[in-house]
Amino acid sequence: MTRFLAALCAVALLAQPGQAFDTQATSAFVIDQTSGTVLLSKNADVPLPPASMSKLMTLYMAFEALRDGRLSLNETLPVSAHAQSYGGSSMFLKQGERIAVEDLIRGIIVLSGNDACAVIAEALSPTGTEAGFARMMTQRAQTLGMTNSTFSNSNGWPQAGHRMSMRDLALLSNLLITDFPEFYPLFAETEYAFDGRVPANRFNRNPLLKLGIGADGLKTGHTSEAGYGLAGSAVQGNRRVIFVISGLQSAAARAQESEAVVNWAFRQFAQRMLAKKGTRLAEADVWMGAQPKVGLVPAEDISALMPVLQTEGSSAEVVYTGPVQAPVAKGTELAQLLVTSPELGTQSFPLVAETDVPHGGFMARISTAAKALIDLINQGPAAAS
């Protein structure tokens, strides 16, 4: 493996110290969705009580059922005694009545209806019970890559074994945004006066939606065990940030911390051009080629999310396994550009061959063999043993 520093004229990688975000949340995960760059991870893989943020999994499975034709928005579902029995956040549904799926979904998103989740769960459950649906949730979460999530109910009501990690919630938030763009705008609704019931309960609890900072989702959560949390997302310009925080002590602390996270994510990081398409950043040695080296260039413009204030210790290097065996075709991926900063870790970008390098002729092969022999001799007896 050959490594050498890359000459990146477009960005200075040594500058002033940057500022990490010191969150008050007990667990947090922040990712720049546009680039896939993790901005913050704090106890992100610890399974914790997710409270109502776990309703996002029920919504994901409801959206899948709508897409597959197993549900329709105007279909009505019955309210059971079990669904009506839930306290906490509620649509105030009554046993025996039938509610349209669209109303139930909006009731889950905007009103955080525990009862609405149970109605959806019983409709989709293989056993007709919420417990059966919870087992489906756990199985589906595993197939989606949420390895630190297990569900005991559909709504986050405190129950043994009901756990999610903040990274899993961020992954789920991203799936909701990318897999169901037709439904995602519902998460930005600030109020929903379902059937005129309890008008004071019609408002979305997401504290960011009215602040004008690009927030458009997703779900708050609160229980005495979990504290106050939020799985959120916001868009500014051509960037989207997804974040999950948990364990705050009050609704006010959640609102303040959520806004601070969004502002930090957008203001302390920026997308920067590192290298233009076709710019030679390095050369790779070629074995038995018509030329001894081949240029390494980006196949496309390379840009990366970087801290606004670069930190000491940031670097850029090109890594490849060489020498490269001839013939080499132009455009063949040969190397990786590794851009490292203490805040964001290492980001990797492919580099390709700048030109074709055919097999060398007889004299080129003799020259290569001679050079290899000389290098071996110069290394001394230890190298030959």
Question: Would you spell out the secondary-structure blueprint of this structure?
Answer:
Elements (H helix, E strand, L loop, with lengths): L1 E4 L21 E6 L4 E6 L12 H14 L7 E3 L2 H4 L13 E3 H9 L4 H11 L5 H14 L22 H14 L35 E9 L3 E10 L2 E10 L2 H17 L1 E7 L6 E6 L5 E5 L4 E6 L7 E6 L3 E2 L7 E9 L3 E9 L8 H17 L2 H4 L1
Parallel strand pairs: 10-14
Antiparallel strand pairs: 1-13, 2-3, 2-8, 4-5, 6-7, 7-8, 9-12, 10-11, 11-16, 13-15, 15-16
Overview of the molecule:
- The chain has 385 residues and is α+β, with helices and mostly antiparallel strands.
- It folds into 2 domains: 2-13 and 273-378, D-Ala-D-Ala carboxypeptidase, C-terminal domain (Peptidoglycan synthesis regulatory factor (PBP3), Domain 2, Sandwich); 27-267, Beta-lactamase.
- It is 27% helix and 26% strand.
- Helix 3 crosses helix 4.
Properties at a glance:
16 strands, 9 helices, seven-stranded mixed sheet, Beta-lactamase, 2 domains, 385 residues, five-stranded antiparallel sheet, Peptidoglycan synthesis regulatory factor (PBP3), Domain 2, alpha+beta
Instruction: Give the CA-CA distance, first to last residue.
Output: 22 Å
Helix/strand-derived category reads: alpha+beta
CATH architecture of the largest domain: 3-Layer(aba) Sandwich
Poorly predicted residue ranges: 9-18
Total discrete domains: 2
Within the CATH hierarchy, at the fold level, what is the topology of the largest domain?
Beta-lactamase
Largest sheet: 7 strands, mixed
The overall pLDDT average reads: 90
Please identify which CATH superfamily of the largest domain we are dealing with.
Answer: DD-peptidase/beta-lactamase superfamily
Beta-strand segment tally: 16
Radius of gyration: 27 Å
Write the element-wise H/E pattern from the N-terminal end onward: EEEHEHEHHHHEEEHEEEEEEEEHH
Please indicate the percent range of residues in DSSP E strands (runs of 2 or more): 25-35%
Strand order of the largest sheet: 1-13-15-16-11-10-14
Count of DSSP H/I helices? 9
> What proportion of the residues is helical, as a percent range?
25-40%
